[in-house]
Fold each of these.
Amino acid sequence: MNTMAGDGWDHVIIGGGIAGLSSGAHLAPMGRVLVCEGESSLGYHASGRSAALYEAEYGAPVTRALARASGADLAEMGVLSPRGFMVVGRPQDAAAFAQDTVDLKLTPISVEQACLRVPILNAQAVAFAGAAEGAQSIDTDLMMQLYARRIRHAGGQIRPSSPVTALERHGAGWRVQTGGDWIEARAVVNAAGAWADRVAAMAGLAPIGLQPYRRSLAQLPAPGGRDVLDWPMVVGAGETWFAKPEAGKLLVSPADADPVEPHDAWADDMVLAEGLARYEEMVTEPVTRVETSWAGLRSYAPDRTLVLGPDPAAPGFIWCAGQGGQGFLSAPGAARVLAEMLGGPASGQPAAILAALLPERLRT
């Protein structure tokens, strides 16, 4: 049995997606941080396959609180760009559109206004439209790079191709096996995304009931060769599909949420075809070519709220899971909360928000 050089870390973070990197960046000033990513690159799974949008009114109430607290950080990082957000519905979508208007604080607009913003919308199919002007695109790759840079600048390390294969308690801390070597840590942060429950089992702890859901995306050429740069993201009422401009292309998703086991996800052709058909119903330009497609996993706790903080059965085991597709928009706020829970500066969140995030709420 080998012991890796440089052992004795304060925080070993399992997972190199946005959850692990943002947590690491906020914990690095508090002690030695090591991020272990099982894949060869950071953000390989969900984080690298996200069509992230900063819309602070999206998600569960606690997620929205963290998202609102993240806005200033995201702006300061320079990862936001104007996008806008629009929901459209058919005549039979009246109830779903009305609920979206309330949940997302949409401003109703006319069908004519909607078609001016997105010229390919079919005015004969669209009966309802509402907009949220403040929504912004997030440069996910840049955001992960910036957090990785902060970790390294503070003396932390990031090790790709370093899957964690065993965890065991060691005195007041933990021993972590990766790459056949063992390292010691005062605390372990479980930011393993869809695999977070499996990491807990490895540590001899009960799962929180995390469920991954597949979300598929197709990249299409710009419809009719149009310039889509200034188009908003468009979502079908009730989130039955969405289309988001990205780098001169159009990303279209069936907004699927099929429960799956943790795995390297791929798009299901039939699900993707059904979603593209729902999109085509609302536009005048048919889909003639799919350039590429992929899928990611959005993982939720049973109450659809993030899980942040020490496990009640093992205080040195820290959960950072259940982001549910909202990891990027809430990452700065969530990382500040996690740092506060581990002895860092106050996050500014009220006690009720902190309590609602703790894993003990899911223990029976």
Amino acid sequence: MQRFFDYGEQLFSKKIELIQKFDLTYFFILQYALPIISMIDLILSLILAKSPCYWSISITAFTLSGIAVWYGSSCKSEGPISQNLNFMMMLASLVYLSHWFLVIPWVTIKMSIFPKKILWKKTIHTGV
């Protein structure tokens, strides 16, 4: 999240290619905007006693994540052999992914109230 606060303006510059802007925009939407929108939608639906509006988008994101987990685990890789994915393992991975819907809104609120500018410095490498 900090990198979007620090480098967000570069998304609108001509320094990066269109496909990179597309990738970063959708990464931002799925990883950061969707959890915040869903949390606000849930809170407002509870306050106003109405059904949430954006949960269909969240369910679609979870479905696509489940498909990605299934596909990724079924592909051959050069690394260690992974277990065959069963329904419980996919469900466990989706439960794990769901924590993002709590963590991201919390971190966003925290970073908005207590902004912290991180200064990145290049690591000096020495040796052979």
Amino acid sequence: MDGFSCKSILSGVLVPASRLGHCGADKRRWRSILLVSLAGFGLSGCILGSEHPDPALPIPASYRAGSKSPEAAVPALDWWRGFRSPELTALVEAAQLSNLDIAVAVAQIIQADAQAGISGAPLFPSLSANASAQRIRQPSLSSGSASTSTFSEYSLGLTASYMLDFWGKNRATLYAAESNAVASRYNREVVTLSTVTTVANTYFQVLAAQDQLRVARNNLAAATRILELIQKQFAGGTVSQLDVSQQASLVATVRASIPPLEVTLRQNTAALAVLVARLPEEFNVKGRSLSKLSVPRVTPGLPSNLLTQRPDIRQAEAQLVASNFSVEAARAAFFPQIQLTGTTGFQSTALSALFAPGAWYYTLAASLLQPIFDGYLLKSELKQARGVQLENLQLYRKAVLSAFADVENALVALKQTTIQLRLQNDVVTNSRQAFQISEEQLRGGTISLINVLQTQQTLFTAESNLVQIRLNRMLASSSLFQALGGGWVWPTK
């Protein structure tokens, strides 16, 4: 390295001693700039973390509707398999791979990551190269002379610049973008959990519609059988036309209940096709009865676990953290900005002499910009950032409280629908027995038609209610899994 001393701080280009003149003075001057630079690296973000509010939310010790052993059966990661339906499992797996809402959430993650990269770029020096070739014609400056001079000029150079992040503005902006990127990942989990739950609920709706259709058709067959019996008795003169008309009305009522059930079945099948990104015209659900499905046993764990298991809570938390850093960045904008710039390169009027020792040049500069008056722009930006921070703080609080309420509601619904299902099974059993007895007595002519009509309507209503209660129980079970944040692996002790 003979003939070289001193080094450009920013560009790293070695400077010939013959071109520096008083190199000792330059050393002292740029040593001070270097110390400022290093201090900027060391003190970057020195004001971070000064305005991070505490949500101050109380956490209950247990759920009111929870079991005595809250950790006995925490949800599994693949909780949908607990319903023991291979078709449901296949649909959920297809939705996880193909659902378009999940695909949109993945695209949002890519955008958020890119934004974090954009926000982090100012923390690094920028380096650019430039080259130019010019042909210049200039008039003579001598008085009374009309001569001109023509020459060429060639240049090749590098420019480096760096903004000292002394007050942490750029780093706070980066942290805000990174927190938003984290929030986008939790948003994907929110969308995935919502999609899986919707697939399960829609599948249950399909099965319930199939069960309702089965009940309606069985009831139609039974009512038609009674109508034929009454018509025979009317032909024999033992019943009146009124009796025939009443039973015919009941048959027509049951028949009229079938088309709406077909609509429900087909609409839910089409909705299920969209969830798995399939054309409804090419999609079919085999389905089974709701009574063939199992309801997984699940306990909610401790309420404190919900804060880490619910993706919507984690998303709200990440958004709150992002807004905290945005406030820090807005506050740091009030302080001076220190910019370091270095330029080096070669310039010559002859291309052959472009890299000659005398063609080399460099410039080094440091500048400071202090906002004085900007029409209250910075003040308004800080006020806006604090408003967003307050909004996200309240949204986080709401997310936590809503999560606890969701779990309580789902626990209560699951417990009560389980009890209701058991009681309704007894209602259906007794109603079916009453209807069978009344039909036998009608054939023997020992019962009035009014009693037969009453037992028919009671049975039809009981069977329809039983299907609805089964559906409500399934929906309550899936709601509980969603309220608990899906599933997790409980650590073994």
Amino acid sequence: MLETTRKRKVYQAILMEINRIMKEDNLRPGDRLPSERELSERLQVGRSSVREALRALELLGLITTRHGGGTYVQHYRHNKLIDILGYYILRDYKTKRDLIEMRKLLELDAVRLACKRATDKHFEEMERILEASEEKIRQGIVPTEEDYKFHRIIARSSRNSLLHRIWAPIVEYSKTIREDSLSREGRPEQAVKEHRGIMEAIKRGDVAESEKRMAQHLENSKL
């Protein structure tokens, strides 16, 4: 039992050290990771331990291995960790309720700040997202990704990096809730109208109206 615990700690330490190396080497999505041998040498651990840690990261979708071509960093949104955690989080009613409540607080704070800090660049991006949403609806496709992107650009337009970093995983955890909401008949069209109303209120710098529209949108989405 003691040996198993020790191995687990070593394994966790290797995962953390690989993360440190990725930051140290400034590796971005699409960049190639150092080889197994190089990681083993840099971390002063056996290659089998490095291989096990890399396998765990790949199973979570955080890295991808190309046959004969090395191992590469994946964008965080491709990872399966959020889906796995989200599944277990949403099984508990109280945690689900707390998650929804936290998202509402962040979204309202985001529109408040966006009214003061959003730029033309942010509004241009919002408009592109809304047009893409409308085009998907015309094609009979539910614009789930565009819904996420619209809320994300509002969070980004708050120009508060900490708010955005907290917002992102919370919205990811509630992915299944959003998908269920948008699958309701007529909801995608209504959601786009609500998004446009939120954008126009932010453009005017009308904090009260922006908050009101966002709160109503989230209520209508049954989040």
